[in-house]
Amino acid sequence: MTEKTIGPKTLQEWKSLYPLLHRLMSTQEVFWANPAYGRMQENMHRLPLGMADLINAEKRWERFAPYISRVFPETEKSQGRVESPLVGIPQMKEWMEERFQRQVPGKLLLKCDGHLPVSGSVKARGGIYEVLKHAEDLALDHGMLTEADDYAILDGERFKNFFSQFSLAVGSTGNLGLSIGIIGSQLGFQVTVHMSADARQWKKDLLRSKGVHVMEYQADYSKAVQEGRKQCQKDPRCYFIDDENSQDLFLGYAVAASRLKHQLAELNIGVDGHHPLFVYLPCGVGGGPGGITFGLKLLFKDHVHCFFAEPTHSPCMLIGVMTGLHNQVSVTDFGIDNITAADGLAVGRPSGFVGKTLEKLISGVYTVGDDHLYLLLRTLADTEKIYLEPSALAGMPGPFRLFQERAGQEYLEKNSLLPEMENATHIVWATGGSMVPPAVMAEYYQKGYSKHAQNPSS
Ligand SMILES: *Cc1c(COP(=O)(O)O)cnc(C)c1O
């Protein structure tokens, strides 16, 4: 009998190289600090994108602001900016300190991307940005627009007719489809969303109500992407939004960093050698957390520490980066089923682009069980009246796990951070939830009261 191989090694070899795989494979919660984590100075030259790209992306968002504020009236008061608040969550912090039996020194803030306008999740950053960029490219190429125009003109029959000759396609577990579908159909594009089996019914219904074509698959996210890519390639007027590889999506997300920098300044929160910033980002395929990390690293360099959070049943980025196999590996190769209540994070194969770009800049990755997500969902609603979807809670235990777990302690020691922790700021990135229908939210909330969720054993 030949032994099972994954990439260049046998399963046994992988397990002896990376003993953490034992716990990962039995879907226990883990905390992994990245041994390859390095200084920004030494890694900047390896990055395919830089500050100029980030600034261009910011400017593109600004050009579109008059259009956004016109077609999405909820953005009027933010002058067409698609941005979310950064808020303190003192009651939640207190509850968690009790539960984890540990004080977290420093500040704890929640970045409320679940309340982003237009599509109610972090995907409103990358997804909308890439569609805007594509629309702009088309309109510029066809001589219909110049960068100096007031982009509010895009809201009219002339442009809608023009864009209706073109189509967009995307593979999604739900939220990316939602953001592409909403902005794409608003501009006039024909949009097809290829939905994985994880996608929630209400997201499909909402998209169909906007005239978006929704294809459903009984398979997971990777399959939905693959099919979408294949079908789109047959049509020269179809543009595929490639969540696994897209630099535009990545830049759309990265703009979050410059916005955050302003928000921190408004709160008089400094980030420097004596005031480290820790950020905890839920991770699916990696584009969202990756893009945000990239932006933060450009702006704050070694003073920011970015940890990714994944479901115990879908730790694709952790396994991809730890083994160096990146997109050559799926969690299912290690017998992990990729079935999780965190539908936004139900991804078995990570983005190779994100993993390779950031393999030395991600501080670490930890995993969270579904029962914990539900418990945290319910508690955040009870303590702070903030309602999120399960995926969006994955960041929440981050600060506690960092202090609690040996690998976290070692990370702080190794980077000489222990003396600075009193002055640290921890930002939990809440990535989705404001569009969840009340009945579905009530079900989520109720699950936080189940016996299992009360005493989650990982
Ligand atoms: C998509 C998503 C993420 C993660 O983004 P990726 O780009 O897939 O890593 C996190 N939270 C929610 C709610 C999402 O929809």
Account of the protein in words:
By secondary structure, the protein is α/β, with parallel strands linked by helices. It folds into two domains: 297 residues, Rossmann fold (3-Layer(aba) Sandwich); 124 residues, Rossmann fold (3-Layer(aba) Sandwich). It contains 19 helices and 13 strands. A seven-stranded mixed beta sheet has the order 3-12-11-10-13-5-4, sandwiched between helices. It has a four-stranded parallel beta sheet with strand order 8-7-6-9, sandwiched between helices. A two-stranded antiparallel ribbon has the order 1-2. Helix 4 crosses helix 11, helix 6 crosses helix 11 and helix 8 runs parallel beside helix 9. The radius of gyration is 21 Å and the shape is globular. The model has no long low-confidence stretch (mean pLDDT 96). Bound molecules: pyridoxal-5'-phosphate (PLP). Pyridoxal-5'-phosphate binds next to helix 12.
- What value does the average pLDDT take? 96
% residues in beta strands: 5-15%
* Fraction of residues in helix: 40-55%
Shape field: globular
Total DSSP E strands: 13
Query: Strand order of the main beta sheet, please?
Result: 3-12-11-10-13-5-4
Distance between the termini: 34 Å
| Secondary structure tally, helices | 19
- Which stretches of 5+ consecutive residues score pLDDT under 50? none
What structural class do helix, strand and pairing data support? alpha/beta
Radius of gyration: 21 Å
* CATH hierarchy: architecture of the largest domain: 3-Layer(aba) Sandwich
CATH class of the largest domain: Alpha Beta
When the domains are counted, the total is: 2
The kinds of small molecule bound in this structure are: pyridoxal-5'-phosphate
Describe the main β-sheet briefly: 7 strands, mixed
| CATH fold field value of the largest domain | Rossmann fold
